[in-house]
Design a protein that fits this description.
Strand order of the largest sheet: 11-10-12-13-9-16-17-18-19-20
Keywords: ATP-binding, Nucleotide-binding
Largest sheet: 10 strands, mixed
Number of strands: 27
Helix content: 25-40%
Domain R3H: 522-586
Organism: Oxynema aestuarii AP17
Shape: elongated
Pfam family, one: PTPase
Number of domains: 4
Protein name: AAA family ATPase
CATH class of the largest domain: Alpha Beta
CATH topology of the largest domain: Rossmann fold
CATH architecture of the largest domain: 3-Layer(aba) Sandwich
Distance between the termini: 40 Å
Radius of gyration: 31 Å
Structural class: alpha/beta
Number of helices: 20
């Protein structure tokens, strides 16, 4: 990275009593800011800590010396030094007099966005988040230069405080061929944003510090006109924006939705839930945790939806070494704290290259196997070959399923020694899903509408909590209550297995795919078989995540339920028609 800081020009505006001891500091090259408060000892702040610069407190003459050598302070109490990136911020008393100065060092760091350059080149709108001082403005400046000089786009910077392109009428060379529009007062930023689009025909708008509702609305208006946005906002993480009613529109806005009874029961949630209101203004979000460690949310809409539904997203963790090598890992949402899984090589594409399933060579039909095929041997069969062989072995698994029925015929009993079939009273559980599980797995279970003739109760957990009458009736009849979180096939299957004391190997090895298929078509069975093989051949034995082939939303839902049957987690990602499933180890 190449760093330009024009530090001498900042030192020239300091009084000699402060400048001389500052120049003697060994850490001068990493100076962050100089703080001068009236009646207090001046100090220099470095990344490692602060150091006092004098034994004498700052006087009004010292402040006036600095003020006379910088530009005029604007409405946000900021000024600069012409042709530099330094920022001088003022503190005033109640009469409007300046009683304190913060002299912030501005640096142009060329090459600082190597971590996310591939995202910048996609043309998607990018939102940068992070605490003050982490380098958001520096990254914004470099993104503007790369877009203008390397990608030859028309870039306009909305420079409210002259912090991106420096003070004065001539912008700093660090922004390259980008054009800069200055803003008279911070309150006018949203108007200048719209003016830039209407008057100057930009392909990219760069904005620093989106902080008001009007600015968020202007950003959405610009995005809907097809202009790429690159900006920063107040907040460390996406969760901060979701909770901020002023800026939540940047990530799609949040609204309260009342669900119908069936939908609430299906989700296993309350009837009133929070949902995303619209597509996000910014498609990509980057959380700048540290200068060399950034968290990337490639799909902001998917991340927000996960957070609103109480699930943890799986963002990328991008780090850059001292040699400039970018390493990408991905956080997995497991509470057990599994280590992050290494992501594919930087710049890889395709469903195999972007996931963790290795692209194994496929045996050519009618051709002799290649040398690489022979080296891999039988242990590393191609996934397609395993899938093809497995599809022809359906009848074998059907025979094993029938073996489960034989076990019941030999005199198995219910949870309290009842004779089979077991009579189950259900509450708020999908009758269609329940009958489907019982019929497909041939379980010795009969549903009943009369609790007096039941051997056990199966109910949704959220409904049992608020139904004291049901709990009391079950207690009086000494009936066990089995609860499930959601009325899904995997949840119902596991509950019935617990009811019948079948948590062992009796059903664990038997995965009847017709249980999860809706129409039983060949495409659905093939997709489910692909998911089953991925789980049983790679995820469970090797503890590696796997990415499946792109499927339709209907088929992906079936794959999700099959993965849940194995007590694993999965998520969909990517854009249609290439949206696909990723399965994570437990």
């Amino acid at each position: 990275m190449q760093i330009t800081d024009d530090l001498n020009q900042l030192l020239d505006i300091l009084p000699e009593s402060i400048r001389t001891p500052l120049e003697q500091q060994e850490q001068l090259g990493s100076l962050v800011e100089v703080v001068m408060d009236l009646g207090r000892i001046p100090e220099a702040r470095f990344p490692e800590g602060a150091k006092y610069l004098s034994d004498l407190p700052v006087s009004r003459n010292d402040l006036n010396y600095c003020i006379a050598r910088v530009g005029e302070f604007s409405g946000d109490n900021r000024a600069g030094i012409e042709q530099t990136l330094h920022r001088i911020s003022a503190m005033r008393n109640r009469q409007g007099e300046i009683i304190g100065l913060t002299l912030r060092v501005g640096r142009a760091v060329f090459g600082t966005i190597g971590t996310i350059r591939d995202l910048v080149e996609r043309g998607q709108s990018i939102l940068m988040l992070g605490r003050p001082g982490v380098g958001k403005t520096t990254a914004l400046r470099e993104i503007a230069r790369v877009l203008a000089d390397d990608l030859h786009k028309r870039v306009v910077i909305i420079d409210t405080s002259n912090e991106i392109a420096g003070d004065g009428d001539i912008p700093h060379p660090a922004i390259g061929r980008s054009r800069r529009m200055q803003v008279a007062t911070p309150e006018q930023q949203h108007k200048v944003m719209i003016e830039a689009v209407e008057n100057h025909m930009p392909e990219v708008i760069v904005i620093d510090e989106i902080g008001t509702e009007l600015e968020a609305l202007a950003a959405r208006t610009i995005a809907e006109r097809g202009v790429q946005l690159v900006g920063t906002a107040h907040g460390n993480q996406i969760e901060n924006l979701i909770k901020n009613p002023t800026l939540s529109d940047l990530v799609g806005g949040i609204q309260s939705v009342t669900l119908g009874d069936d939908e609430a029961r299906r989700r296993g949630s309350q009837k009133t839930v929070l949902e995303r209101k619209a597509p996000p203004t910014f498609e990509v979000a980057v959380e700048m945790i540290e200068r060399q460690r950034w968290v990337v949310h490639e799909n902001v809409a998917e991340t927000v939806d996960c957070l609103l539904r109480g699930r943890q997203p799986t963002p990328q963790i991008r780090t850059i070494s001292e040699t400039g090598k970018v390493t990408i890992t991905r956080e997995l949402p497991q509470p057990q704290g599994l280590p992050t899984v290494a992501a594919p090589p930087f710049g890889a594409t395709g469903w195999r290259a972007s996931g963790q399933m290795k692209a194994l060579p496929m045996q050519n039909r009618g051709d002799r196997p290649g040398r690489r095929d022979r080296e891999l041997g039988s242990e590393h069969k191609s996934f397609e070959q395993m899938l093809e062989e497995s599809l022809y072995s359906q009848s074998y698994r059907g025979e094993r399923s029938r073996g489960v029925d034989d076990e019941f015929a030999m005199g198995a009993s219910g949870p309290n020694g009842e004779d089979l079939p077991l009579h189950v009273y259900t509450y708020a559980v999908s009758r269609h899903q329940l009958d489907r599980v019982i019929r497909t797995l041939s379980l010795p279970v009969v549903t009943t509408k009369d609790i007096d003739g039941a051997d056990a109760v199966l109910a949704l957990r959220s409904h049992v909590k608020n139904h004291s009458k049901l709990r009391q009736m079950a207690k009086n009849r000494q009936l066990p209550i089995y609860t499930i979180k959601a009325s899904s096939i995997p949840q119902i299957t596991h509950a019935l297995k617990r009811l019948l004391h079948m948590d062992g190997d009796a059903l664990e090895e038997v995965t009847d795919l017709s249980l999860f298929s809706q129409s039983g078509s060949e495409d659905e069975i093939e997709a489910l078989e692909e998911a089953r093989l991925a789980v049983e051949q790679i995820v469970l034995p090797k503890g590696q995540p796997v990415e499946l082939l792109p499927r339709s939303p209907k088929v992906r839902k079936m794959q999700h339920e099959l993965v849940e049957h194995y007590r694993l987690k999965s998520c969909s990602f990517g854009d249609e028609p290439n949206r696909r499933l990723r399965i994570y180890p437990a």
